[in-house]
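Technical appendix A lists one of the benchmark inputs used to test multi-chain prediction within the project. The record comprises two sequence entries:
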Amino acid sequence: MEKIHSDTERDDYKPLKKFVASPARPPKRETHGVIGTIRKRFFNSIGNSLLTCIALAVLFYLGKWIVNWAVIDAVFVADTRRQCFDTSPDGACWAGVISWFNGLIYGRFPVQEQWRVNLGVVIGIVWLLPLLSKRIPLRGAILLSWVALFPFVGAYLFLGGRFGQELGLFHGIMTCAAFGYLLLIYLNLIKALIGSKTIAVAGLHLLFVPFLEKRLSRRVVAISSMLVWGGLSAIAALFLSSFDLPLVPIERWGGLFLTFIIAGFSITMAIPVGVILALGRRSKLRVIHWLSLGVIEIVRSVPLITVLFMAVTLLPIFMPSDVEFNKLSQVLVAVCIFAGAYMAENIRGGLQAIPKGQFEAATTLGFGYWQTMFLIVLPQALRMMIPNIMTSFISLLKDTTLVSIIGLFDIMLMARNIANDKDWVGMHTEPLVLIAILFFVLCFSMSQYSLNLEKRIKVDR
Amino acid sequence: MTSSNPNVQLQPNKAIEISSLNKWYGDHHVLRDVTLDIYEGEIMVICGPSGSGKSTLIRSLNHLEEYQDGHVAIFGQPLARDRRSDRLIHNTMGMVFQSFNLFPHLTVLQNCTLGLTWLKKMPDQAAEKFALTLLDRVGIAHLASRYPGQISGGQQQRVAISRSLAMEPKIMLFDEPTSALDPEMVKEVLDVMMDLSKTGMTMVCVTHEMQFARQVADRVVFMADGEIVEVGPPEQVLVNPEWDRTKDFLQHVL
């Protein structure tokens, strides 16, 4: 005490008072809790109470009508639409949708070959499963391999035909490589789960890398992992060439399956096409700049239907007569360019938001243009643009239903076909309601996923 | 008071030679016949009022800015606008910015290893080990797994310094490294720079920290209106300036 006094050299020194906060009190009951909130939000005045009551009444009658139509009065078992009407004239006739359900999902894909579609979807999902765990390194390589190689697997399974004949030798080789790579990923994962504490390597690295890593150079590791990949692909080739899948021509593809193919392909291709166009538009090279600008602005100024019609009618005219296109690949090319042009503007927005200092820092460290773009700028730009990119994806998924107009049997055209079936003549409402629900579930889960992604990235920062 | 570094007299190798450098922004003449030699191992502090061209000068050295007239040579090799010169610049010079410019999507450690693995082709483990020793030297190895957004400005600037040092430059350029920092964080960055100055690194610093200039600098350059007004040991320029312009500036800063 004495010392402090002399240090401060003040005569009027007093010891400090100790501050104690006053005890916390609960909030007033009228404004808090469930009842308080309801009272505050919905019944805070006579007018508002009246509005609340009216809204509740409307909701009740609407809900009752919907439940009556869709569930209580609905018919689930019947052979024709007439039977539905005889049983219950006011309810939905789900029996028709149920009997056409297979068609809505697979289109006119032969029933005995539909397992191939299911298997393709399962392989696609299994390939992407490792992306869910944050502990697995090189997830980018897995995603990239999926984008680059899975389409070959899909085409092989869905189209079929004699191996390496209908689809050509190159396609056969790529299919084997794809299966080989998938095996490589999973052998790595299994080895890592059994062997070491952490999952060491996936992707292009080798099964036995962790044992030799210290003594081997990177080049040796890369070459040996290529060899193992080649070996696994050869095993896949031996297996695949031992039997033939019956050919299912593209005209028979349809339903939700076809919708998924078009939407999935355009969503995965939209990003690379968009990146190329966006970088092109920002390029200092005049020719590339004007070319990208032209593609983006023209495509964005034309409705998708027009692009689709042009792809189907004009593309074959410009191509040499011996090159034969099927409608699906024309549509895929058209939708890709369309989606890419929109994506390019999203990505360009993200690129513009990257501060100049990031480029300067990258340059002074010695990174060149492409390294700066792919390591530093694009990862940030894409993250920043997740909400916009996801919005584009959702509208892309919905836009794919337009292909029914040019005669591809996607889920929309299949639904309209039900009304032409002699047993279910004139049944329009029920299939469309089903499709509405289906698309709502798909789009809503996409938007929820994007919110989740945004949150996860914010945690990272 | 430190006198000018005796090493400079013993090894008068020129690290950077700037001869009659001129730059215009449109009609605005921002660098006017700047001529300056910076020797190996020298600590050069550039000061002056804002708009005097100090940042432009330092950014011209590593080609972040273009200049219309004059020459720059590094270790005797004249620079041109070509790939060879760019490679020479990137191999010899590192830079620390006023706004840190860390890569926000990468952790502190990844910020430092990115150049090592992609440009120096170092194996991952070796790169991480090297980066960690550098982070340890600036006292933030414990923050290696954080993201830049999660650490303070002073810590970010220290990361930026170790990121530059990871590329093993011979010359370090500092462009107002403490100007964007809260006052209590300035010292931790200056301490790191002082430690660095003892390792024989050639340093060119644009700064308003006169105390730092007095303690560490071998020579101080005072610039005004795009011209070098005076160059000399800190006690000469900062204590007994020859020109009224310098004196006027020092009265405002000190």
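Chain A touches chain B at residues 218, 355, 357-358, 360-361, 363-367, 371, 375-376, 379-380, 383, 460-461 (CB under 8 Å). Confidence is low (pLDDT under 50) at residues 1-8, 197-214 of chain A. Comparable benchmark entries are summarised in Table A2.
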